[in-house]
Amino acid sequence: MSTASPAPLRNAYLEKTATTERPCFICMKMTTKVLKAKDGGDFFYACASHLQDPGFAKGEGYPPVPTAEALAAVAAYKKKKAEAEKKKQEAAAAAEASSKAEEDKRSNVSKIGSAVFSGLGSVATRAATSVSAFINDEEATKARIQAQELERQQAEARKKPEYWVLDQRIFFLRQNDIKKRNTKKSTADTLNGLSFPKVPGGL
User: Fold this and answer.
1) Range of the domain at 79
2) Does 123 reside within a domain?
3) Do 146 and 166 have their domain in common?
4) What is the pLDDT of residues 181-198, one digit of tens each?
5) Residue 200 counted as domain residue
6) How confident is the model at residue 166, as a pLDDT?
7) Do 164 and 58 contact (CB within 8 A), yes or no?
8) Is residue 118 over pLDDT 60?
9) How many domains does the chain have?
10) Do 172 and 150 have their domain in common?
11) Are residues 40 and 105 in the same domain?
12) Where does residue 30 rank: exposed (0-12), middle (13-18), buried (19+ CB within 10 A)?
C-alpha cells in the first residue's frame, strides 16, 4: 500500500530555543538554538555564530524601525520634559515676585522681625518649588523609562527576524538529509511488513 509523499520543503525556518543543548548542524558546537521549518517537516540545531553568518542564512520579516509606539513614547517624554522645565521657570518667577512683594510690605518692620519672616517665607517657597519640581521630574522620569524600554524591546526584536531563509547550499543539505531519513523510514516500514519463512526444524 503506497503512502502519500510528503509536501515539498519550503525554505523558511522559525527560530526557537530548546531546553536542552544539541550539536550545531554545521560545526557541532553545542547550542539551544533550533531552526524549525515554518511548514513543518524539518528542524535542526544551529549555533548563534552561524545565525550571524549571511553565508548560512538570512533573516526576513524584521519589524519596521522605528515603530509608531516608540515614537509616541519619545514624543511624550520630550513633551513632559518641556512642560516640567516651563513649570519650573514659572515657579521660580512667581517665587521671585512673591519675595519682592513681601519685602515691600515689610519695609516698616524691624530688621530682626523682617529677617525671621523673610527666612520662613523663603523656606516655604523653596519647599513648594521643590515639591513641584519633584512631581514633574518623576513624570518625566517615568516617560523616559517607558521610552527607553520600548526602544530596548524593539532593538531586541530587530535582532531576531520573523523567519530565516537558508543559503541554497545549506538548504540542499537539509533536503538531502530529509530524503535519507524518509528513505530509511520507508525501508524499515517495508521490512516490518514482510514475513519471512521459518527455517525447517532439524536442519
Assistant:
1) 68-158
2) yes
3) no
4) 888 877 766 666 655 566
5) no
6) 93
7) yes
8) no
9) 2
10) no
11) no
12) exposed
Higher per-residue confidence, 173 vs 203: 173
Both 45 and 72 in one domain: the answer is no
Identify whether residues 166 and 179 lie together within a single domain.
Answer: yes
| pLDDT at residue 182, as a whole number | 82
Q: Do 114 and 88 fall within a single domain? A: yes
pTM: 0.49
Residue 74 placed within a domain: yes
**111 and 148 inside one domain:** yes
Up-side HSE of residue 188: CA atoms within 13 Å toward CB?
6
What does the pLDDT average to over 129-135?
Answer: 61
Are both 79 and 147 inside the same structural domain? yes
195 lies in some domain: no
The cell for 48 is: 548563534
DSSP the chain: ---PPPPPPPS-EEEEEEEEEEE-TTT--EEEEEEEETTSS-EEE--HHHHT-TTTEEEE-PPPSS-HHHHHHHHHHHHHHHHHHHHHHHHHHHHHHHHHHHHHHGGGS-HHHHHHHHHHHHHHHHHHHHHHHHHHHHHHHHHHHHHHHHHHHHHHHHHS-SEEEE-HHHHHHHHHHHHHHHHHHHHHHHHHT--PPPPPTT-
Phi, psi of 197, deg, nearest 5: -65, 145
pLDDT in tens, 7-60: 678 999 999 999 999 999 999 999 999 999 988 889 999 998 999 898 999 988
Over 60: is that where the pLDDT of 203 sits?
no
